[in-house]
Amino acid sequence: MSEMVKYFWTKAVNDGTRIGLTSEGQDELGTVKFAKLPEVGDDVKKGENLLSVEADKAVSDIPSPVSGKVTAVNSALASDFDALNGSDIDAAWFVDVQEN
């Protein structure tokens, strides 16, 4: 399992588990320039690749902390990645996963 896991947070939401980037993750990666996210309806498995991010300091594949189906993707990330680079950690989320 990648040490990157500690740089991501999870939070219970109505349709499952929300996965986002912590301030430590932001510091470690630097400015996120691109993220390849799963799509709504995709199945993800704990420990397998959930998404890839390209940032100033690293290009990283991020393992999923949960197994299930993607129910939401942060629409703010469709046009830019500012939400992942700001101080509002609650806004720095990638996807919601309905665990199975």
Automatic annotation (TrEMBL):
<protein>
    <submittedName>
        <fullName>Glycine cleavage system protein H</fullName>
    </submittedName>
</protein>
<dbReference type="InterPro" id="IPR000089">
    <property type="entry name" value="Biotin_lipoyl"/>
</dbReference>
<dbReference type="InterPro" id="IPR002930">
    <property type="entry name" value="GCV_H"/>
</dbReference>
<comment type="similarity">
    <text>Belongs to the GcvH family.</text>
</comment>
<dbReference type="InterPro" id="IPR003016">
    <property type="entry name" value="2-oxoA_DH_lipoyl-BS"/>
</dbReference>
<feature type="domain" description="Lipoyl-binding">
    <location>
        <begin position="16"/>
        <end position="98"/>
    </location>
</feature>
<dbReference type="Pfam" id="PF01597">
    <property type="entry name" value="GCV_H"/>
</dbReference>
<dbReference type="InterPro" id="IPR033753">
    <property type="entry name" value="GCV_H/Fam206"/>
</dbReference>
<dbReference type="InterPro" id="IPR011053">
    <property type="entry name" value="Single_hybrid_motif"/>
</dbReference>
<keyword id="KW-0450">Lipoyl</keyword>
